[in-house]
Every structure is written in structure tokens, then in C-alpha cells.
Amino acid sequence: MRKIFVLSVITFLTLLIIGCNNIDPVVQPEPSVTLDDEVNDFVWKGLNSWYNWQSNVPNLADTKDDNLEEYITFLNGFSDPESLFGSLLYEAGNTDRFSWFIDDYVVQSQQFQGISKSFGFRLQAVLINTNNDIIFYVRYVAPNSPASNAGIKRGDIFNAIDGIVLNESNYDALASKLSNDSVTLSFVSESGRKLTFIQDKTITAIELAENPVHFKKVFNNINGKKVGYLVYNAFRSSYNDELNDAFAFLKGENIDELVLDLRLNGGGSVLTSAYLASMIYANAGTDKFADLKFNSKHTNQNGAYDFENTLNVYDVNGINTSEEGINRLTKISQLYVLTSSSTASASEMIINGLKAFIPVKVIGTTTYGKNVGSITLYDSSSSDYTNVASANSTHKNAMQPIVFQIFNKLGQSDYTQGFSPDIEIKEWNFWNNILPFGDENEVILKGALDDIRGIATKSISSSIYDNMKILDVSQFEHKFEKEMYIDHDFFNN
């Protein structure tokens, strides 16, 4: 009887299991609301999958779309996809200053490679005295640009835009005119706190492709050493070969020291940053340069960027066109980096990554403080939003959210407040004497060269004028200029 009872129980449980397996899955009823904009669905699902702080944002919880009607109602509560995107960013302590919504990913891709409509210069605003006088000085001019063709050069000063003199109450609004197709700038000279008008120059923006490998030079006798100097303004993968060519020149000169000028370099490609490190570090082999860590949904993407012996050459569309050997310096045992508040992301990655191997001396002002990076997400659910080729063809919206944090070989990543300089020198304090790149007396470069000479250089600032103040200009903030992004090859390897 016991055997029959046991068999009966087993038979009952078997039938129960079979019966349960045959139960139809619960199907949500059709929602009574319809989605106003399908891009909103892409925004939420892309961020839910990839966003670095997904677990910290309640409205990105995995349960948010369990009830389809409530989910659609939530999405419909936003006037446009960009508003939804902004509402989903992690705001605690101003943590995410970096993610942004993309209106046109084709235009964005071009901007990543330095192609944009531009006058071809970079500026800095300074309040120069107690009389409320404000000037802009030119930090950089791109070759063959409208600014260059108008004879504008680094160190030039202007104090009026379209005939309106700058002051503390109007300078930020007037700077918006620098986004126009054409602008007139009133250039001045300075003597004893007084500004004297020189001439007006009108320039018209054009589509410009800027080579970030801006300037190179070798100083042949700095305390008996050959010192290489390189001004590098962005980690643009389509210029990997130009960067490698610059190091072929420096290597051929057999330099003993390297001064890397990253004052205008807001970042760019993580892979290009690894290539640059591989050009600098004499003992680079297959060691780890940097570690990338993603959120808990993408731990399979966690990976390292090692030092490389070869590099990929890309065209402006991100297509790998060839490969070439890296031109590595052989005598560099330390690195000098010139910095400013514009030095960010992939530039800071160079400092953080190489300091695990060699001394890195920072000269200038504190860097921006960005230890996280992004990828471009497209409306392509079949590829988990990473493949532009399969993106929804009805729109060109995309997202550039933060999706990873970067660490060096020692696990260090604590520079959200930027890297403080070993020798602080504020370029803007010398606004009336900004010298060309490569001039031995240019104030920030001189700080590095003097250190190599063995001259004890203290942090310095100009004492010419009191009450000077550097001014931030919102119109100068282009999100992509402080980016650190992964090339598509990262996901393919």
C-alpha cells in the first residue's frame, strides 16, 4: 500500500507540473493609452540598459515598465525626448555633469573628429581691473581658418563684439554672437591698464576640420638635454597617424625629455589615449594602461586597454583603413604635462594612467576632473542600442550617456576634482603677454623648461594688476569637447 501511495503522489505531482507548464503565460491587457513619441521609449530603454548610475535613479528601475499602461503614461508626461533624458540623469551632488542628448548623430560624429562650422579660434575672458573692463584673449588659432586668414594670432586681445564693448553684465550674452555665422571683433592693445583700439576684424565661420596635432618643436640644449614639446588639442582617432608621425619626428630627434601641452585638450577617444601613452612610455610592452568598468548589466564589457605596439588608422567615418607600428620614445623616464581647466577626460587619463609607471609633473592649473566616459547609443534595440547601421531610420536622435568609469593599473580613479598642478601658473594672469606656442618664454612652457634646467620654480601669478579675475563663458562650453568615448572596435574585439 505504501508503494501505491508513493506512486500516486508522484503521479499527482507529475500531472500538476505538466498542468502548470501548460498554463498560458499572463498577458498584459492592451493599454488604453498610446505612446506619443517612440523616441521616448528608446531613451528610457537605452539608459535602463547602459547608464552608469542606472541603479541610483528610481525612474530607471527595471520594474518601471512592468505595467505597460503606467510606463507609457510616464513617457507621455514629457514634452520631448530630451526633457525625458534630462529627468533620468543622476543629479545627486551634481554627479553627472557629462551625459547629453544628441539631436543629430551624424553631425555629432563629425564633431568628434574635429569637423564643425567654426571661426577656428579658442578664447578666454578676463576681468582686467576694477573699472569693469573685460577682454577676450586668443588662446589658439587653427591653421587655414577664418581667424587665421584674418591675421588673428594667439595672444591677440579684443574688447568689443559687433561694436558693443564688453563689461561684466553683458559679456556672457555678447559671447553668444560667437555662434553666429559672422561676427565683428574690435582688437585692442594694452599699456598701463589702458586699452587702445587697433582695428575691427569681421570673420565668417566655415566648416573646418582641425588637426589636433597642432605644434611640435625640439629644444636642443635645456641644461644639456634635448627636450621635445608637443601641443596636442584632442584625442581624435581619425588623426592617429598624424600623432604617430609627430612621435616619429621626436623619436628621430632622440629627445631626453617630453613636455606634452594638453591645455586645450578636452579629451576624445580612449583608444587614442592608450596609443599616446604607448608612444611616451619607453618600457611599454603588453602591460595594462587603463581599466574600464561598466554597470552591473554590462560587466561582460569590463575590459582593459593595454599598451600597444601598433595602432589603427581611421577615416572620419570611424572606418579602420590601415595599421602601422607605434613610434615609441626610448629615453623618457618622466613626463611634463601642461594643463588648464580645459584639460579633461582622455587627457586626464594620460596623467592617471602613466603615473602608475613614471613620474608625471603637472604644470599650469587644476584639470577639469572627469574620470568617466561614454558611448553613443542609437535607436537600435536589436543591438542593445550600440549599432548605428541598424538604427531607426525615421530620426537621427541619439544619446551620449556616461556608461563606464576608468581606472589605472593601480586601481586609482579618484580625480573628480581634477589633478592639482605640481607647479601652479595661471596663464590668464598674463593676458597682456600671451606668447606663441613654443616660445621659450611662454609662461607655462617656461615653468617646465626651468624645472628641467634645475631652477626651482614656485607657483607664480602676475603681480602686474590686482583685482583680475578669470571668467567662465557659457557659450564656450561644447559638451563634446570634454568627452572620453569608446570607439566601436571596443565592442567588436
Question: How many β-strand stretches?
Answer: 26
Can you tell me the CATH architecture of the largest domain? Alpha-Beta Complex
Looking at the structure, the CATH topology of the largest domain is: 2-enoyl-CoA Hydratase, Chain A, domain 1
Secondary structure category:
alpha+beta
CATH evolutionary superfamily of the largest domain: 2-enoyl-CoA Hydratase, Chain A, domain 1
Categorize the overall geometry.
Answer: globular
Question: Mean pLDDT, rounded to whole units?
Answer: 89
Q: How many domain modules?
A: 3
The total of helices stands at 12
Biggest sheet features: 7 strands, antiparallel
Helicity level: 10-25%
Determine the N-to-C terminus distance: 64 Å
CATH uppermost class of the largest domain:
Alpha Beta
Strand content: 25-35%
Rg over alpha carbons = 27 Å
**What low-confidence regions span 5 or more consecutive residues with pLDDT below 50?**
1-20
In short:
This protein has 493 residues and is α+β, with helices and mostly antiparallel strands. It contains 12 helices and 26 strands.
Topology:
Layout: H1 2-21, H2 38-50, H3 68-75, H4 81-87, E1 100-102, H5 105-112, E2 115-118, E3 121-127, E4 134-141, H6 146-149, E5 157-161, E6 164-165, H7 171-175, E7 182-191, E8 194-204, E9 206-209, E10 213-222, E11 225-232, H8 240-252, E12 257-261, E13 268-269, H9 270-280, E14 288-294, E15 303-306, E16 310-314, E17 320-325, E18 335-339, H10 346-354, E19 360-364, E20 372-374, E21 377-378, E22 398-400, E23 402-407, E24 423-424, H11 443-453, E25 469-471, E26 484-485, H12 489-492
Parallel strand pairs: 11-12, 12-18, 13-26, 18-19, 19-24
Antiparallel strand pairs: 1-22, 2-9, 3-4, 3-25, 4-5, 5-6, 5-7, 7-8, 10-11, 14-15, 14-23, 16-17, 20-23, 21-22
Helix pairs in contact: 8-9, 9-10
